[in-house]
Queue: 3 jobs
Job 1
Amino acid sequence: MSDDLEPLAPESAVELYLDQRSDEVSASTHESHEYRLAPFVEWCEEVEGITNMNELSGRDLHAYRVWRREEGDLKPVTLQGQLSTLRVFLGFCASIDAVEESLRSKILLPTVSGDDEVSETTLDPARAEAMLDYLGRYQYASRAHVTALLLWRTGMRTGSVRSLDLDDLDLEEGAAHVVHSPETDTPLKNGNRGERWVALSPDTAQTVQDYIDGPREAVTDDYGCDPLLTTREGRVSRSTVRDTMYRWTRPCVVGEGCPHDRDPDDCEAAQFDGASKCPSSRSPHDVRSGAITSYLLNDTPAEIVGDRMDVSKKVLDRHYDRRTQREKMEQRRDYLPDDR
């Protein structure tokens, strides 16, 4: 360890890094970095007892790579993304004399093939409907019900659902206006290009109205806006939306039992803050990919899906369309003459 380094706790280092990056990246990217670095802080302080960034070595980083891969049961592409963020973070730490300049280069990134670059996790339509049926029966018009309903029925991103204000809704006509408003901390991933009107089915619109008339916390946010999805403190955070989906996409909480033969009394994923550890739980991105695939399986033209979900044809084909080649063939058959 160099004498030029200055002591700094891992958690404090991450806080400094996130503060420095807050003006450089979008809110969604900032949250993603925070999410990716949380396990590193946990490993340092709770697993290895490392309380000073100065102590980190290349061997430590290899141990973390192995731990993260096995503990998180991560696919190569996911592990690569998390370690890439750690590399950037360590570059920042070197700039403030918390680690050696060469430390970041000692992180070995996993090699991924072209197929591995695309995540295969998605929410199956049958499981999505089971979730919505359960919420509709036992948690009707709750915030969780409305969150899940909007994400699945519209395929919106987390930021889009979170951005909705009461003024953006025309529930009588069954429509929601998705607006890019960075000045009120509700930006869209694609900026102004992501702005659009999204149609809502009558039952979805009615459920949203019942939520507004019922359990919704009638609060404004820090900018004087009236968010649709609220907590007692104001607009929901992205992490709240994410945690909601992890919780309610677990089969065991919607009466489907555990497909992994686990005992709920002993299962860490059954705990309040452990839902993401369930192999069957799904993130909002998985819900979005499942919704897009469901529309495509129902013969909705790709151009219509792309406009509704704010996604280009190229990105849709590569990252969201989870139809099998056989399913695509069968759908094409319906449009071909019988003698072809």
Note: The first helix runs from residue 10 to 21.
Job 2
Amino acid sequence: MSALAPIWTPLDFVAKTKEGENIGGVLGGIGYWNGLEIRALWVHEQFRGQGYGSKILAYIEEVAREKGAEIAMLDTFDFQAEEFYLKNGYQPIGEIKDFPKGHRRIYFSKRL
């Protein structure tokens, strides 16, 4: 039995102001079967609530789509960005209850 060669196309982006100040960014990539895996998305506190997170998310989705990705997947916690991902068209596909204690880890996907 032969092992599969690792396949990963990194898609890591940082959004900055005209002055070079970090607004936010995203760490992700395209793995096996053309799936976009979003590992982290953040927006600096002073820029939150202004639509930058949605723009960063839309950007990585578009770049991934252009490279052949057909689905995006990620996870978050109920105290982090659950509503943000729902608002941006992601569907919950599973969760781990009481992890961490008193909370939920939620898994999402979205067809690109």
Note: The chain has one domain: 9-111.
Job 3
Amino acid sequence: MAVGLHAPEALDPVPGIRLAATAAGIRYAGRDDLVLIDAGADAAIAALYTTNAFRAAPVVVAAEHQAAGQPRWLLINAGNANAGTGAPGLDAARACCDALAAVTGGRPAAVLPFSTGVIGEPLPVERITHALPALDAALAPDAWMQAAHAIMTTDTVVKGASRRVALSTGEVTLTGIAKGSGMIHPDMATMLAFIGTDLAIDTETLTDLLRQANAESFNAITVDGDTSTNDAVVCMASGASGAGLATAADRAAFAAALDTVCLELAQAIVRDGEGATKFVTVEVMGARTRGEAAAVAETVALSPLVKTALFASDPNWGRILAAVGRAGVPDLVIERIAIRVNDVDIVCDGGRAPDYAETAGQEAFAAEEIHIAIDLGRGNACARKYTCDFSHEYVRINAEYRS
């Protein structure tokens, strides 16, 4: 059950961007599992991909096509990752791009393919290519919710967000969708996310803004420490509004909106983490550098012992302290460390806080939303990571994933 997460009632259409979804029978019976997005002939498309060395075939092909310049279409399938499939997997991804190009009259290199699902299974190319003509004919600007449903795998809730931003040159819209629930960990995108806007912007600037937004959102979440072979986050700018970033204030306003959409989608992934019962923010402050703070936050957020204690509502705060100690911070002075969980001071000066009571700690650990604040007492830098607990359900879901 997702933690404090509900599907959006609606998502705003983005002028110049059209979507469609259909049931191609890739893995799931009776549900949409194939999505086509047309970002428009003049679109700027920025994309960031997994740094996992075992990149899936669609990630390899998408990166190649993006480097070739001027991508326009995104083709996304759920149920089959087309990963660990070797040369035949690359051929399959390219065959899908070729088939879509034949339908649209565009270039194969203008297609960015994406896949999510089971690793190691051949991609059913014929099922995908058979569905493409009808999929292209069904493209519409108001199909964001349908597309969000179609890209889900073990997700339990549709993930989407919309914002509108007033710039000096006019109003622009941002809408994004994402999928992800397990195999989630920072190292460039940690799932699939697709964000559209009608802003007029060049690809280089859009990529810079996406990298900045990604650092504090998709790159700040972890469910289980496993970075997928298929991760990607894409931002498409159709330019249809004609509004651009004419001033520094325009850039700041758009960047803030993009940051918000990315963070909302990223947190939705953690809230829908496989088997999650609690949403956890780990905030580390008082570090010498941001990298140091991020390393401590990630070590705590990733600790199976911390995550299982949270699931059990067991205030075993020694596990948090132990994770801080093994995060690799040089010359860490334990006596300066303070830890607070929600409104309960647990650790002070490196030991149990004088006024700490086990009942208060248990109440804090039992909350559905948990904020772990860690002060290292050695500087002014800080960082945040977002995670969830580990439950029996996580083990069941992943034990039965291919059955």
Note: The mean pLDDT is 93.
